[in-house]
């Protein structure tokens, strides 16, 4: 167990020990009044199951809120520990028909492969059984079997086959709950009452098959999350007292040095203290291109040292690592449900009483007991409940493996509706680091000689522009001289003696320039910062610096316009001249000289006008605006706490091509959700109609109620195979090659 701080509240994450009972959970309790427990729950196969668990726990005194996550089979319970404890929660879950495991259930890749093979076998068996039922109904074989086998024998067969289902229905009835199985059970009983035990038996068979189909559908949605979790390293090689010791990752302490050999996963977040390696960071950033790391570089847990070995000083371990927070975000995404999901939940609550009413009308109008039973049997509310979460989980899980972290379905839903995009400048549209863009000679001195002289004079300056000059010299492999004298003039520039000459670098306050140069005016009009250079009292050169635009930004903005986003606005704290130049270059609106609170007000103004606002920032100084927006996207969030906490969507790498791609993912996901809901609604309407008029017998009705789940799974599975593309991605790739 580990504790997570959220405001003034502690979160206690309960994970069963691999070899001990749940009562041995590691605990860490603070003095905060309310606690949050994460409790594993077994036996949940559909959204209706999660609803029952949520209701059972929420009814306990002292429970303030409950979120039941079907994808990760756990309940997140916020409670008063003085009024309710873990045994009470376990008992409530058991009364609901589910269980809190006494020990951890470890899933292996082999078990996942076994489940996939069993699911294929299940589909084949389902098809064969369905074919037999259709043929038997058409040929009248069931009527003959019904006459030859005594009703008591048939009734015993039905009870024996359906006992687990009947038991759960009885438990639900005692709790005054109605499930989809309740109606099907009533339908089976109705078939027995009129002497059709074969129909009742087939209903029971398909009830059981339907359970497996729903379990398969849910497991498919869980798989993306489970595959992501499986990437977490389990052990680490730590140097202790001069000896390498292999220990569980949880036993590594902050500050210890971890040894990583070629081909191994890096087990912690940390800083490289020795060694060189090529590291595959795809598990964090989603980027397939490996990066070179050297001493001083940051590395992340679950990334792989492909070539070379490293010694890493531990900064974060386990759930506190970037990868740990990624997993936690994906696991908890299910609790952030959008309007579509809540609509489906409300519909499911009213759907079952509606079906009961239709069945009653069928009986009153036609007096046909089998038609009434068929109405009850064909109804399946689970398909409505699955329509949204299966698609959302598939999309969120697949996106997380590519470095796109989505905190919940409601943010995907809002992103799909976004019509205004507000963008921060520094660190978002630009790289956030000034670079020398122009070297202009005023007396014929060669540019390399100018750059060497200026970089030598700026050798010991800490100003960002001085670093830009030195970086430009390093990029050209220029050899610098040691300044004989150095003086920094605050707000103006530097003076230094280089090779016996007085070199002055700075603005016009330090270097008076009488004549007005057209090149200087042109560079200033582009929003660039000018550095004047004087040699022995005479102006000899002019350097221009600018915060470089990310190469993929123009193409990404063009894609946003193609996607129907007509309003893109730049929000920056820079001056009017710089903002105007960049906005003109990109063809967007702008607002300059903004403070963080000004950006929040801009977001609120658009929201007051009825717009759905998408805010893109770097997650540091933009955190308030990101939180205020309908959807806040933080770029380059790898290793950045505030970015992951503030934003609703976090991009683990700084790549503008991901912005239009996220919009496509959101719209594609909502399209799949709407298709799922429409398909389920039409299918159930058709089934109820055919059953009510006597055209769909109970045997075929039982088979028909399982088909919507397979349809939802097949449709939602398309989201697991989403492909990345777009002009912005191509522009970014070209820039990296260059």
Morphology: elongated
Number of strands: 27
| Tally of individual helices | 27
Poorly predicted regions: 1-32, 103-115, 727-738
User: What kind of sheet is the major sheet?
Assistant: 7 strands, mixed
Mean pLDDT over the full residue set: 77
Describe the structure.
About 50% of the residues lie in helices and about 20% in strands. It is elongated and about 115 Å long. It folds into five domains: about 1-95, Alpha-Beta Plaits; about 110-225 and about 330-390 and about 670-720, no CATH class; about 255-315, Calcium-transporting ATPase, cytoplasmic transduction domain A (Distorted Sandwich); about 395-430 and about 550-665, HAD superfamily/HAD-like (Rossmann fold, 3-Layer(aba) Sandwich), CATH 3.40.50.1000; about 435-550, Calcium-transporting ATPase, cytoplasmic domain N (3-Layer(aba) Sandwich). It has about 750 residues and is of the alpha+beta class.
Outline of the structure:
Helices cover 49% and strands 20% of the residues. It is α+β, with helices and mostly antiparallel strands. The chain has 5 domains: 2-95, Alpha-Beta Plaits (2-Layer Sandwich); 111-227 and 331-388 and 668-721, no CATH class; 253-316, Calcium-transporting ATPase, cytoplasmic transduction domain A (Distorted Sandwich); 393-430 and 550-667, HAD superfamily/HAD-like (Rossmann fold); 433-548, 3-Layer(aba) Sandwich (Calcium-transporting ATPase, cytoplasmic domain N), CATH 3.40.1110.10.
